[in-house]
Structure prediction request, 504 residues.
Amino acid sequence: MSLPDLIEIVPLDKPVRAEITVPGSKSITNRALILAALAGGETILTGALWSEDTQIMVECLQELGFMVNVEPDPNETCNRTITVYGDGGRVPPGGTELQPMELFVGNAGTAARFLAALVCLGKGVYRLHGVPRMHERPQAALFKALRELGYRVDSPNDKLPAMIFGGDEFSSSRSRGDETQTSKRDQSLLTSAPTNQRSCTVSIEESSQFASALLLCAKIAGWQVKVTGENAEESPYVAMTSKLIEAFPQHGGKFQIEPDASSGSYFWAAGTEQFSEWTCDKTEKEEVVYSIPQVTVRGWPNSDWQIDAKFREWMSRFAFESICCGHYTAKFLEEKAGLNWMENPVAVEKQDWERVATSRQTDLGDSIMTAVVLAPFAVLPAKFTDLGRLRVQETERVVALRTELTKCGAKVEEEGDTLTVYPSKLHGAEIETYNDHRMAMCFAILGLKVPGIRIKNPACVKKTFPNFFQKLAAPPPNGLGAEIWEIKNDQRVRKLSGEDLFAD
Prediction:
């Protein structure tokens, strides 16, 4: 069995304490796979995420001709120990212009961008293509930079599908000469950049993955990469790439992948304290108890590589300033300030209390979507700014968040790349996920707090977190013990558990 097309999450009705394990970071795993392929010798990646996006990367590396072995992880179902055998910077040859080597990247942005740069280090012709949505996502800035470096990239609209022609005078010179000399030359490339460096400029206004793709290959290839665009110097994902490159074993060895902080955000969000009565409708027959679990995430990253590792800190700040976990802030407003904040939130704002504002550029990464879904439970309106990149990811996420939260009764305003979410009384709704894993997971957490939340196409979580719904339903302390039901003809027909909840 597998996840059905429509499920309903039942709010938890009793206190739960849990310590959840989440799979490895997708961002780190796919970067590490590229670095391992370029390293000299055997690299063992432990705690590596095993989901649709990372499987696509592994399959593409294998299609290219790299030897990659995958073994189970005893501690986490959706992790793997992955061994990659690099060849000191050599990339196996592709096909011809008439018969290029085909690389299918699905809807994995990291695979599409990172592989586009990687295959330039090989010889021959490679054709990158994916699902229709991937063919809509931006690639122009990366293709422009690769052309500046001297590579031929054929694409009629600067998007996928694209033909990339690997090899140039530098890579050709590396392939000549005897094996001993070539080996020595390759070893030197791993420790110092060559003297005949070429340069390019890449904008990260649409995606920081463009810069990361180039930086991952720059040392081996001898590229100088100048990054421009919004927060070019401080972009957290570009910073992650740079730090990972410095820490990675360039001559082979072992490398531990951190748990995914974006995936962990859902369980920190589930772990907010009890919410006040106004947050949800009560049923006529019984009083619903909104006792939300006290949840921690095992092995929470303590490095500064993942911007979403800040989510736990953000939760504390947001809870203190405005979340109703909460009726303490509400009681203060009513008893001390004499304001009925729920009936007239505008009056509360006029008291000059600072409105909570969270930026996609500087505060949170993808976990800002989790934050947006929590915002209706706040005392004050919450602003989410700099959301432009959410528009060009798996779906148009800004519009999707506004649309689906509005279905649930929330007041949400969209202005430019900013969403303002107002305190709102929520109710159940059927949530369209747009085949976006993060939409499914965000609104599933809302279902732990609001009766009647139903999730369409829940299997889309396979992209980064295939056992997400298993974690929700598993008994504590390894899960939350939530009830999840299959819905058919608007009725609950089957309570789901075990393998029924795995997304494949």
Remarks:
- The chain has two domains: 6-22+260-501, 26-256.
- The chain is about 35% helix and 20% strand.
- The first strand starts at residue 6 and ends at 9.
